[in-house]
Amino acid sequence: MDYDLITQIFTKQITKMGINTVLLDFDKTILNIHAYNLLMTQFNGSIDNFIEGRDLSNDFADQILFKKLIHNLQSNNINVHIVSFGSNELINEYMKWVDVQAKIETIKENLAGKNPLIQKIIIDNNLVPEQVLFIDDDVRNINLAIQGGCIYSYHVGIFGLNLQEFITLIKTLLGKSPNLLINASNYSKFMNIDRNETCTLLENKKPGDYIIRPSYSQPFDVAISYIHANGSIIHSLMLHDIPIETQIDWISH
After folding, report:
1. How confident is the model at residue 93, as a pLDDT?
2. How far apart are CA 227 and CA 249, in angstroms?
3. Are the CB atoms for 154 and 168 separated by under 8 Å?
4. Tell me, what's the pLDDT at 71?
5. What is the rounded distance in angstroms from the CA atom of residue 146 to the CA atom of residue 239?
6. Is 58 exposed, middle or buried (0-12, 13-18, 19+ CB in 10 A)?
7. What does the pLDDT read at residue 109?
8. What's the pTM value of the predicted model, to 2 decimals?
9. What is the mean pLDDT of each run of 10 residues along the chain (253 residues)?
10. The dihedral of CA 210, 214, 218, 220: what is its sign?
């Protein structure tokens, strides 16, 4: 997978959605371990002892992706904040390891999750919640952020933000805003027609083409119809059925 391309696609899509700030959790999101927990329970809080002889590369969910993502976001004037319950100093060691910089914001764990910190970032930077994308491994933090107005909040899986999870994130963003499929010029027409009228929108389509439309059964998802070689139409393919390379081709022009 071309990391430059996939991060460019991500940046392009969130920009189209009006997002200009990305908030990233660190432990179990950027990292595949809970480094702060290890620091406190196994190294008595000593960062020097923690990093001595340790290959920090092994702790990242995807070190290359993280570096490319930060670089691409910042190159496109997207603000990046690390938001964590952990140690500012320890996070900074990891950031130096991959030679990237971002604002590191930490808060003590509390009943309100990271929402107080998120709201502070929003206020300090004159943002509105809809301009923020928040990514975290803790579903409780996600739910509290959504309650605080951050509708673009994404829960990563147990392996953190690796390449496969990042692709899933892109698909999720596409599902929430299907018009981001740039080549789907007929999308708006599909919003207001009966499913039986699909065949009327086949102008300039040929065997092998996909037809992109909203899902009839799954809110916020995109469904695909496919024109078979014999001219018949195969309905009800979902976005996740389509090769990621095809999706990238759709949205990278």
Report:
1. 97
2. 18
3. no
4. 97
5. 25
6. exposed
7. 84
8. 0.71
9. 83 89 97 95 95 95 97 96 96 96 92 92 95 92 88 89 87 55 33 40 57 54 61 57 55 45
10. positive
Distance, in Å, from the CA atom of 56 to the CA atom of 40, rounded to the nearest integer, reads 17
| pLDDT at site 201 | 42
| pLDDT in the model for residue 179 | 33
> Within a 10 A sphere around the Cβ of 231, how many other Cβ atoms?
9
pLDDT of residue 246: 57
* Tokens encoding 90: 């320890």
The pLDDT, as a whole number, for residue 205 is: 59
Name the nearest CA neighbour of 187 among 225, 155, 149: 225
Q: Which amino acid is residue 76, in one-letter code?
A: N
Q: Quick one: tokens of 10? A: 């991500």
Q: Give the residues across from 81 on adjacent strands.
A: 23, 103
Name the token pair of 179. 């018009």
Domains located in the chain, CATH noted = 3-176 (3.40.50.1000), 180-251 (3.30.505)
Structure token pair of residue 167: 């692709």
Q: What is the residue whose two structure tokens read 């140690």?
A: 87
Positive or negative: CA dihedral 221, 159, 151, 67 = negative
Measured CA to CA in angstroms, residue 146 lies from 26, 29, 112 at distances of 19, 18, 12
Task: Give the pLDDT score at 184.
Answer: 31
Q: Is 131 helix (H, G, I), strand (E, B) or coil?
A: helix
Cα–Cα nearest to 228, from 203, 210, 250, 244: 210
SS3 213: strand
Q: Would you say 110 and 116 are in contact if contact means Cβ atoms under 8 Å apart?
A: yes
